[in-house]
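## retry 2 of 3
previous attempt timed out at serialization; input unchanged, resubmitting
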Amino acid sequence: MLNSKIFGLALILATLLSCESGRNLQPPALHADFARYWQQGKAELSRYALVQARYGNLNQGELIVITVTEPFNADKHVKSDSLSGRSVRQVLKAQTMRRFTTGIYDYTMTTTSFKPIDDAVDFPAMKITSTSVDWCGQTFAQLNQVSGGYRIESRSYFESEADEDFNVSGAFSEDEIWQRIRLAPEALPRGSVRILPALVAARLRHRRLAPETATATTSNYEGSEISGKNLKSYRLVYAHGLKEERVVDFIFEREFPFKIVGYTEEYEDGFVKPRRLRTVARLAQQTLLDYWATHDPEHEALRRQLGVTGFAR
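## retry succeeded, writing output
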């Protein structure tokens, strides 16, 4: 009887430990003002003026980035209806919404990344989703964290990219850099890294999502495209020196809250006459707001203040 009780207790302990196996219990050393800024019941809303490469042209548009903390059900991988509980984790969510026009029609491309704030910053995001909608149709991808990597669901209206379900291992996602910078920019990975390209980039280039090797560096920003003072740049260079080379820069302020003031991306774009083009997003307006409570007609003034147009031309 005693042995069976011991075995039972051991089994319970093992089960509890296994539930925590996907969790790194060494949270990052967050800035002293992190809670004051990010946990005041408001989201940070940022609008960027966007020039987007597509079809071998540079197209006008806008990039909206919504960054906010919220409860996340780590068992179901969805936003939690409860504020507390065994499976509830606090995440820093970053939602990027790219909208631009190409000739007569337009694109809306949204990516959402959920990154727990009680994990070490180098522990990958728990979930990332992305949708792309244009006049031809829509595509969707979802990454769910599993042991050692991600389980990926990919859906597309293109025959060559049709429904796929597969796993990848040993890589973090470029999409979570929007959160890593805000959490702990000093902990950004450097050197040779194994990384999943941004879901939007993979979709625009019609490349199957797979880990790639990139060179990551952090330096003082010395460019002229993005204005500001005391700026730093986090750069990723994929396939250096090759035809498919892609260079990405996140430009951010060196002081908390590490505001991301610009984003650039350069690669060979276009199907008929491909040429190397540069996508640029410049921060135009930013505010803190409980936007979920501002959904009535009288709140349209707030939209005008932020400068959101839906599509710019």
